[in-house]
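Quick entry between incubations.
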Amino acid sequence: MAITNQLKNQHLMWRTGFGPKAEDVRQLSAISQKALLKSVLKASSQSPNYINVASEELKGMMMDMTDAGKTKKKDLSEDDRKFLRKQSDKDIRKLNLAWLSEMVNTNAQLNEKMSLFWHGHFASRNNNIFYQQMLLDAIRRNALGNFADLLREVSKSATMINFLNNNQNKKNHPNENFAREVMELFTIGRGNYTEQDVKEAARAFTGWGTNLQGEFEFRKQQHDDGSKTILGKTGNFDGDDVLNILLQQKETAHLISKKIYRFFVNDTVDEQKAAWLGNKFYQSNYDIKSLMEDIFTSDWFYDPKNIGAKIKSPIELIAGIRRMLPMKIENEDVQLLIQSLLGQVLFNPPNVAGWPGGTNWIDSSSLMFRLRIPQIMYDADEFEMKPKDDDDQMMGVKEAFPAAVKIKGLGKVSGGQMIKTEIFWNDYIKKFDGVQKEKLIPEISRTVLQTPVSVSEDVLKRYTDANSRDYFIKTATIQLMSTPEYQLC
Amino acid sequence: MLIKRKQFIQVGSLATASFMLPKFLKAFEKSAMVPSGNKVLVVLQMSGGNDGLNTVIPIRNDIYYKTRPKLGIEKDKALTLNDEVGLHPALTGFKELFDDGSLGIMNSVGYPNPDRSHFRSMDIWQTASDSKSYVYTGWLGRYLDAQCRGCDKPTQALEIDDVLSLALKGDQMKGIALKDPQRLYNTSHQKYFKEVLADHKSTGSEQPVDYLYKTMAATLSSADYIFQQSKLRPSSQPYPKTGLGKSLQTIASLIFSDINTKVYYVSLGSFDTHVNQQNEQQRLFTEMSDAVKSFVADLKSNNRFQDVLLMTFSEFGRRVSQNASGGTDHGTANNMFLVSGGLKQKGLINEMTDLNDLDEGDLRYKVDFKEVYATVLNKWLGADDRNILGKNFSYLDFI
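Done. Structure below.
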């Protein structure tokens, strides 16, 4: 595939966001990467809106608690606690869909893409909707800001403190969970600290907790204010001091840069480039935006080996289809089912290390399902698949997903699921105005795919509807999206 | 991936309008690849954390009845194994297996620094990692990696499910998930996909697109292969019409065929009985007991029971004391069932867990589950357990 200007721009759109929108496509052949990047950065320059989907009843309940000055978890009655848990479960699903819509619709693509990266980096689970909203907000506000601020906010968030048991980390009874993960996964990485460092850091984090409302609390009486030695430094350190020590380590800048390279450029890391990025990131005092600019303005970012080289994550896949083919999904919740079947449910990372990505997304069942999704969307076809139970999420409650959609009038065996969509094809089809019929397939292919497709035009033509030009464009697009190549960006 | 590049290119060069099986996959279609006496492992995952104490019950233990005034199962209701031990009343099939000498019970299985989160502990069991490391491959996936160096048999490990578990994901190889052979065949049998595959020509480099096509090729040909095999000698026994019943019947049919599958994986759940434990466990155990009973009868009548080992596990047991909602909360060590006609140790393999010696209200583990894995890998599957588990674990004597 020739590396055209359009391909480079599409590459930039896929990596700085979730791919081009139907209405953008026309402009992508003319504009320069420099100009495009400038507009991408500008679109992400404002602070994002708080996503607030918590149900009114829950908000009311929490407000009453706050007004009554009740800030402890045990202040909640058993019934209230049950309600909080059940409603949070529903609301977190709403939060999932709301954020996914943001990824599809916002112009601040880079900010959301970056947030998705941090969401995986600071992987955590928590079944309290308020805590999840607060953490998501902290991530989205700092996604392109300074990593030091982001690290501090995340470390003090109720989600992380509860998830990594720091509420139980007390003087004389240290819980090392947070101290270990902050070193191993969030900053310096394995091999750069000792077990003794973990023990000492855990002591420094004693007393860090959160209240019922999810606000950070420093509990002085639980804090061990004795002397600690961490990574060769000795002092009466507290948690903030430990984070500062970790940020002083160059390894932190390198670990983050390498992970960002993997996420935004290529799963196969070019060590030299990653090291160059790491040094610059450290010198900039962890300015995330300038790190990203360094990547997207580098010539090597547009190397053929980096284009179409990433396997889309399930979220990128879903958001990408929805951006190119704007649609209304009648049964919105089905997107949660798709996430689950493909192995990436927002707010439900597999563990604190996040989603491994790359070829880990692909096995026989996930690949075949990916290939069928565009067809299922277009034909309103049904699929009969059940995700695995998630006991953490379900808390012993069955039916995490809505019961199978009843299918009327199709004469098919029910029990299957459908993705009931109405696709708004107009903008997309308009893009091909003036393209000669025999050039349509190559043109669609260039629009939809980031890598040359192996399926021949002869085969494609046999599976497209030639009754009208519109149908031809629609079906050819769907078939091209139902290929292994479409899994790449 | 381990398909040799040359072979893979052949997939492309075979391109015709109709789909053709890649040669490397055809190879094992011709002759029966399964030597007689081929050992097969069936892993039954009890998802959600089964309450082991109400599964294998210490029927004369005062602490048990004291800590479980409501949930404790009375001595005369339990299915007595000996003076001290009884099985849950719903496990009638397992009681028969016990009497028959085809049930082994391993008590106090767990791992150091146990984690009480479902997904983390399940991760630890499925990856066979310790509780401080995060591993992206499963123990059976790594078995596939090790077993299939230089060959390509994507059907060596099958999961009867729509979604593949981490346990079966290796670095190079991944098992195949299927709910039933017919459905896998139907969904992958779309002509369009076959033609897309036939049109593909390898880029000749290690690009992800080749990985995708390799997975696709393996899936499509395996789907055909599994479907053909499943029809070869379908199981004739009656099975209960439950999820597990159907899954075990599918597994039996495949075991009787000439398929090269060594490992089957299937799950039942959810055993997460924080509330309403009595009814839930009763229901799930009935499903499990009836299905396993039919499965064993089927294996016996086909003379394969001595070659099949069914092993159960759960990500953790539950706390010794009942909670206030008619259930139990997340605990630690647990028991495992081993079912086979080829067991060397039968019945209660080790001592019951000591309820006098608890760790803050939780059972202490005595057997690391990785020792069970090492034993199965080495003695049953003839695999290099050290390489797969990354460490030497001592072997147990049950097989």
